[in-house]
Batch of 3 targets.
Target 1
Amino acid sequence: MRRYSKLYWQFFKARLKVMMEYRADFLIGVFSVFLIQGTSLLFITIVFEQIESLHGWTFYQILFIYAIALQGRSIEHIFFDNLWTIGWQYIRPGNFDRLMIRPVNVLFQLIADRVQQDGVGSFIIGLIVLFTAAPHLGIDWAVTDVLLLIVMILSSAAIFMAVNLFFATFSFWMVDSLPIMVAVQGTSEFARYPMSIYGKGIQFVLTWIIPYGFTAFYPAAFFIDQSGFRHIAVWTPVVAVVSVTIAYLFWNRGLRAFTSTGS
């Protein structure tokens, strides 16, 4: 673990230098994220100008759900975004062979090989939304509550990463599973709203099949007494651990099936 920590720091410093060399690209990326997320938040604001609540959920409660989703997604985006490129950047052109012959864990190399600066913009917006919503939830925030919130956000990030890793692994058989990843990622938008507004089928899929519900709604529901979902929300860290374990085992299965495509 100590060795990999040092290696990651070396990778991270190299990527940071690259980002600083192209500061305009960094700022444009952050600004574009501000624009995209700002549009989504504007939409929510406009909706709540017409209604008092959404299926019993207030404006600030919806913002709280959104903030947790944004925080979890941004952490995954910053540190694990390279999972999206496995097929077209590594396997298809034959670059994956380079990772295979090094005496370092292949998945570690893949993850450490990129830091996505665009996620910084999402993280900042997530913090702003979180600090805007939190005082309006009627919660007396103790230190334990803050620590639990951090655990929930990290669990959200882990689940986002696990889902992406699981479906990225299909690239070992399909060469490029990016279309599947994009389609699956699209369903995460449902989790930014109360699960109670959906039918039982969608709730089941987003809870136990592709557990995006645990990236936003359930973690938020844990802190809201009247949510009616706290009995499920308490399992969020466990779901994160199980999701990462399943994804990693599936990754190892795909790695054993890998056949070089050449260059």
Note: The radius of gyration is 19 Å.
Target 2
Amino acid sequence: MNFQQLRSVREAQRRGFNLTEVAQALHTSQPGVSRQIRELEDELGIELFVRVGKRLTGLTEPGEQVLPVIERLLQEAENLKRASDDFASAGSGRLRIAATHSQARYALPPAVRDFRAHHPDVSLHLQQGSPQQIARLLLDGEADVGIATEALAQYPELVALPCYRWTHAVVVPPGHPLLDGQPLTLARLAQFPIITYEPGYTGRSHIDEAFAAAQIAPHIVLSAMDADVIKTYVELGLGVGIVASIAFDDERDRHLRALDARHLFADNMTRLAVRRSAYLRDYIYAFIQTFAPPLDREAVDAARHQGPEPDAGGPVLAWSKAA
């Protein structure tokens, strides 16, 4: 039994049993992947995959039982490598961060700047995606840290640490009727076409819940993953925007005006997640505390050892643009 055999089995499941994609991911040949899988099956004395001819179509019942063990073995091998790297190359390495568009654009830059100033030998790799994609990258070991507002706390294999609360704002062009000084309400807002986030992004669920609770059906004419896209179409006059308050800057967005909407929609929580079983190198702890100062090494380790408690409390910051 060797790690290449284990990786071949894991990738076969991850890649939908497409051995061509498995071979590409492992930088080998398709016959080589098939041989590695067969050799492991022969050694274990069981078939891990259902086959139709030479094609893999799924996992057998023994395969379903064995795959989690393979995952743990490969994760521990990765942890062993990281632990040795901490001693062999202290202060240098690679940090892989996965974040949603809003977090990458507005929340991360100050933390990345400050982290780089103190850890110049660590290379940063930033990946963007949906909260579900970020969770998958963490679970697959392809990201070290994930940052998003929604979804991360739903995975027991991850520890999702609360970082800071933030609210929404309504953005409109200068001279818009909503700037008449009258109170901003959901009913007034619903009189105009609305541009906001895609479902599953940046607190969209709280927007939908507020309108549903008021029994108002908003006319959402456009949805996007990125606040900059939303603001662009608001400038074009296509509708009223609802964005994260952190995404509005008076100087940068001088062609727009913002209205505080915290009284209309529930607060949102940005969370930072790591895989519960991962070995965290020293500079990963340092980055986490740079992003959310209350989350020092002791707080992170305590949360990781508590067991899956998605909604557990913890140190929480209110968002500040000076952060």
Note: The first strand starts at residue 49 and ends at 52.
Target 3
Amino acid sequence: MDRRKNPYAPGAGIQPPALAGRDQLLADAQIDMERVLARRPVKSLMLLGLRGVGKTVLLNRMKADADNLDFQTAKIEAPEEGTLPQLLIPELRRILFSLDLIARAGKKLRQAMGALRNFGSAFRVSVGEIEIGMTPTPGVADTGNIEQDMPQLIIALCEAAAERNTAIGLFVDEVQYLSPRELAALVLACHETAQRNLPLFFVGAGLPQIAALAGNAKSYAERLFNYPGIDKLPPEAAREALTAPARKEGAAFESDAVEEILRVTERYPYFIQEWGYHVWNSAPKSPVTKHDVESAYPAIISHLDANFFRVRFDRLTVLQQKYLRAMAELGPGPHKTGDIAATLGVDATSVATVRQQLIDKGMIWSQRHGETAFTVPMFDRFMKRQIKVLEKHVPRRRKPALPRPL
């Protein structure tokens, strides 16, 4: 097979050549965006799913669709370290410049620029020069309380967009890494703009725990957002994701080869792209056979271990790695927290902090109280390959305090 014609696109957030199984979700989002432009009410979106299901791909596609509808869009990825204002201010500044180019600055745009200056000053983020000759408006987005200032800033931005008959599209990836106050501020901003029927289309994406985090931040979040779950592909869509790119290049997979790839990838979109990519490169000719798939398996696993799984593993402490290895000993999950601790040889309370650290790092999540599951598909198998034998954890005893001198 000609490697120069390999049609598959494994990678973080890279749109696959056949975006199969997501048509209805994208169509619904398109309708919502058109309703926003018509100043009709819509619910914001929170895309929830494990790693490798294509949340970032969908987020990027929705942003592109919003751009095509002449929205003014901003996209950020929440980092594990850093603040929301640091990421958001440059994007909102760019939008304000774009709005200024549409027509001569009006009242609402001047107010939005003043609000952005205030917001940047309150959170000590450089906004840069805004050559509009305006001074900040006292009392707007200037308190340093993000739950108060963020809604005021977004409202001012949306009012400026409405003044120019356009809308704002705000896209935030990895929402679970926002601090509780930052998430609360975003939820509140979406709530306030919805109450005022302002033109904002918000889409967040991240791990499944976001629904609970948003609900904890503001109780009305469950009514403010739709929470579509992004999961592995249905069988027919998974087949299409694998075979359609090959067909465009005049190649094919034998049916048992297709079924074998769907089995080993568990129909997760990212893994389908990885398997398609490596099997294409190693197969001698078309059609690809089941034997070709099986022959490529060791090299694919080695590649994933080194480039996908291990990146996450290397960020963990030894005890965190042991905790995940204990989870892997029990299988894919979800598992009861007490069972994991017992497998590790300790009491659940003694590793409660470790469990929370792993949740904060996005390695595990809790669907129900007292349960824990991996956020990365197939990570249990990787852990068994990485740590062959599970060693029980022996907590270090604290040294007794020395008596104070008299």
Note: Confidence is low (pLDDT under 50) at residues 129-134.
